Amino acid sequence: MTSDETDGADAPRARWRRVLRWLPIAAMIATSLAILASGITRLLDLDTLLASRAWLSDAVARNPTGAMAAAILAYVGAVVVSVPATLFLTVLCGFLFGIVPGALIAVASASMGAAIVFSIGRGPASELLRRRAGPRLAGLAEGFRRDAFGYITFLRLLPIFPFWLTNLAPAAFGVSLRTFFLATILGLTPGALVYATTGAAIEEVVATHEAALAACALGDGTRCGQALTLRSLITPTMLAGLAALAAFALLSVLLRRRLAREHA
């Protein structure tokens, strides 16, 4: 067989390999768009949780292991396809399983989902991100180069970038999976405890919710379904606590750099 014939036979295989490399990220994006287009995410709100809480509690009581497995699968799946439901799911885990177990389930699930996206991001998506990196991504890259663990922890404590971006960008800029995974667990834990606490106290929220709906009905009656939302449960105190934790993480990064310079 001549070299031309060999090159001709290898060309289809090379194209097929390129297709396979893009397949995981393409499937992830397609699934995400399909879920968003279906409108299912509109059901992930506090009113739905309040209306279903008796059925959900009964399901957990009848089969706690199965309920936990279902919660983990749903959470991991939501993270992998980048559906904006992690806040709701963390609150739900707190409601179903209690503060500490709920927070642990949320952190473990979010971290596993993030690790899957990170692994997918090591393929052609990382090449695309590096080519299209603008000033914001350049800043991320610099942070990962200087102190990947501390920077990822900071980004998880105070999510100033979309979750999917902070899953893909570290892979594109050479962070190891071990560093990414451990920093993600550490950075997600404080916020998960805060939101799981909100979920565990959901029965106390019911009274507030019903009072808000009643007051709304006595008024003009419009937009009563929005009397209480997940956003309204995120108090200034909660945000201040997360900001303080993020500031502490950033301070630890700065101190670590200074100590490294002094001992260099």
UniProtKB/TrEMBL annotation:
Keywords, comma-separated and alphabetical: Cell membrane, Membrane, Transmembrane, Transmembrane helix
* Transmembrane is among the record's keywords: yes
Q: What topology does the record note for this protein and the membrane?
A: Multi-pass membrane protein
Q: Which Pfam families match?
A: VTT_dom
Primary subcellular site in the record, as a coarse category: membrane
Q: Tell where it localizes.
A: Cell membrane
Protein name per UniProt: TVP38/TMEM64 family membrane protein
Species source reads Methylobacterium adhaesivum
